[in-house]
């Protein structure tokens, strides 16, 4: 039998060592970087953009990128979302197309094995199946440009959406830059009848105005959503359309600036604001709220707040994105910044903190939930998310604001809980993340004995693995991220035995430096999977620190 508090003697030094290791990773400006893995999807997209828009000036970059793609092929002949992961249709189709376009002779064997991998799953036609190829339109276009897919089968981009009234257009969320650029590309390179040509004549100027407005907001570096993938998509579209050469040049420069030494690009450049917002509450629970080393961190977070209303989604000033300068303001990182600043002693009356709270309250959906980018959006890719809603609840509760908003959010959580007690989510894999984060938020609000909390607790207890950790709840191995989230949730309910076993797993999983390995628990969008180096450090440290406190060590 596991005794309450039996891991406390080991947790105490582990918390101190992990906190110091985390602080050693902090940059001189006060933030943390948040590195993501290299991505075959992003690298292949960048190859297409540079091969069309700047083949001579980017020759050396393209050669390194092609070399990386060849080296990143998995043993089964396909490509994965991240090296060492399971091969996916998205990554394989884009890598094959990029190698066929860029270096067909050197890459002939790799192209053939990639096509064979696709053939075993239905051939290149598999990319037309959105259930198996979530990046259907992107993969089809790249394969067609590489001569591997029938161009007549390509989907038309509904560029006319850009002429919708602003209030409606702002609900379309974060995929609109790519839609706008490729819609203009099709208008300029495809043959259409008179009605479609008339629509395109109206839509093209609106699309270009939209892209310029985004560029003006995001800064001259050329980032779009701080994502090399999105930059590459927009760059290719505008170049092939022969439009906005100044923007194309900025996008090219951004891709040159963000390529890694190994020749690859990540899905996002990094998620510096995200991980800083995750790490600060962990350090605070570890007893470092007043540590003078975090003064620079507080100032850095404050500088990252957006002072302007964002034209793409209509969100107010006062939000934070996942990176600067071109990360879009969104719920998760605004909640993270509000939490972090509060933990660092910024008073509720501080103007910046008040704007952050107001941002969260303004962006709450009518049904009580929070999506990532837009309010009440019809987009499935920006659907209401349990993890984001829980994060917003934790931030509002910590700062002591939004009582009515919190009540609406709790009602939404109660309505959307699955019959087995679990919660799904949009931005992390199901179902441990959503269930554990919802449970933590309910417990923080004093609702640990509610039916929803009991259901979530019981689901976590049923899905704890034999080794004491948690995976996704569907057979995946235990991870530091999911185990930490489960422990944080269960500690809010007073559940001791399962928490002890989870803490023991976290202690055993530490590396020699006192930190943890990252696991692919995050979704970028459309099920593109990633890991981030600092996410496990943040939540595992926070879980151990909270356990230590509740065990009476502090």
From TrEMBL:
Positions of the Squalene cyclase N-terminal domain: 17-168
Ranges for domain Squalene cyclase C-terminal: 276-548
Keyword Protease carried by entry: no
Protein name: Squalene-hopene/tetraprenyl-beta-curcumene cyclase
Family membership noted in the UniProt record: Belongs to the terpene cyclase/mutase family.
Cellular component annotations (GO), alphabetically ordered: lipid droplet
Signal peptide limits: none
Lineage of the species this protein comes from: Bacteria, Bacillati, Actinomycetota, Actinomycetes, Pseudonocardiales
Keywords of this entry: Repeat
Pathway: Secondary metabolite biosynthesis; hopanoid biosynthesis
Pfam families: SQHop_cyclase_C, SQHop_cyclase_N
Cell cycle keyword on record: no
PANTHER family documented for this protein: LANOSTEROL SYNTHASE, TERPENE CYCLASE/MUTASE FAMILY MEMBER
InterPro entries: SQ_cyclase_C, SQ_cyclase_N, Squalene_cyclase, Terpenoid_cyclase/PrenylTrfase
Molecular functions per Gene Ontology: intramolecular transferase activity
A Gene Ontology biological process term: triterpenoid biosynthetic process
